[in-house]
Structures are given as C-alpha cells and as structure tokens.
C-alpha cells in the first residue's frame, strides 16, 4: 500500500486539488505497479518550509511502499511527481525533494 506524503510552502486555497490527487494517484500506481485503490496521498500546503535559504515554492515528499521500489522506479517517481507538482503548483523540479522507502528492503525472510 503506497503512501505519498507531500508538504509544500505553496498555499492550496483556490487550487483544484482533486486533479492533483488524481494525477498523483495514477502516477504512483502505474510506476510502482500497485492498484490505485491501495494508493494513499497526503498533500499539506502552507507549510513553513525553506529550501536553499529562501521561501520560494518548494516541496518535500516521502513515499513509503511495501515492495515495488528499485532504482528505476525511484528515478521515474522523482521525474513524474516533480513534473506534476511543477505543472499544478508551479514548484520547480529543482526545488522538489523525494524520500523513498520500501518497507521490504533488507528484511530477512523467516524460516518458520
């Protein structure tokens, strides 16, 4: 069940967030290979956030998934999610940071 949590200093009042949720959900589902019905998106706006010492539009995101993450998936997520945020919230891709976690990485399989 992938969960994408995005915090941005952009004010979301008056912005069509439904279309953002739709595009983010579809992108995460397709890239990670999990059904849309299991994708969770959190979008928090007007967060006190600086990047490079200034308060120009920026975003910090974290995605957690149970499997489906590899180097190629990470690259696609960064590029695709960055493009969505750039197109919808005018956040430059150079001011978007994505942390990626796969809860199954490093897990030792039990022999029970």
Automatic annotation (TrEMBL):
SUPFAM superfamilies given in the database record: Tautomerase/MIF (SSF55331)
Highest taxon listed in the record's lineage: Eukaryota
Coiled-coil boundaries: none
Family matches, as PANTHER family: D-DOPACHROME DECARBOXYLASE, LS1-LIKE PROTEIN
Family: Belongs to the MIF family.
Protein name: Tautomerase/MIF superfamily protein
